[in-house]
Amino acid sequence: MLTNGCKYAIRAVIYLVMYADVNNKIGAKVIAEDLQVSQPFLAKLLKELSGKGVILSNKGPGGGYFLSEENKENTLWDIISCISDGNKFDECFLGLVKCNNDNPCPLHYAVVPFKKKILSDFQQKTIHAVVEEVKQNGTAITLRNLDM
């Protein structure tokens, strides 16, 4: 349901909240290396997020990306809608062009409640809340440095 761009952007924002602040900004190269994602693609995503005010950035020496306390109150949906138009949640799970309550696909009624729930969660959950859950549960945003 989420594009790779949305997934990378969410991971990058979580990373920034965990490791960056106004006195310790982080560049796209470092974030991409730590998250093990394409640096040019991530740089484009970070530029979009910064341009729309979801994250902050400074150029030049000591520059990079970070979030203010106000930015941390944005929701996951703010990130998703910045990177993608969000229409993935309206698309048919089986890829049919026209799928709705009047013309349902075989999985329509099984998937609709799930899609509504996850959309609601994305619209309500703040970046700050996600980071708190990551810290509390020890969940990973990268597989780097994990014993496998």
UniProtKB/TrEMBL annotation:
<dbReference type="GO" id="GO:0003700">
    <property type="term" value="F:DNA-binding transcription factor activity"/>
</dbReference>
<protein>
    <submittedName>
        <fullName>Transcriptional regulator, BadM/Rrf2 family</fullName>
    </submittedName>
</protein>
<dbReference type="GO" id="GO:0005829">
    <property type="term" value="C:cytosol"/>
</dbReference>
<dbReference type="InterPro" id="IPR000944">
    <property type="entry name" value="Tscrpt_reg_Rrf2"/>
</dbReference>
<dbReference type="InterPro" id="IPR036388">
    <property type="entry name" value="WH-like_DNA-bd_sf"/>
</dbReference>
<dbReference type="InterPro" id="IPR036390">
    <property type="entry name" value="WH_DNA-bd_sf"/>
</dbReference>
<dbReference type="InterPro" id="IPR030489">
    <property type="entry name" value="TR_Rrf2-type_CS"/>
</dbReference>
<dbReference type="Pfam" id="PF02082">
    <property type="entry name" value="Rrf2"/>
</dbReference>
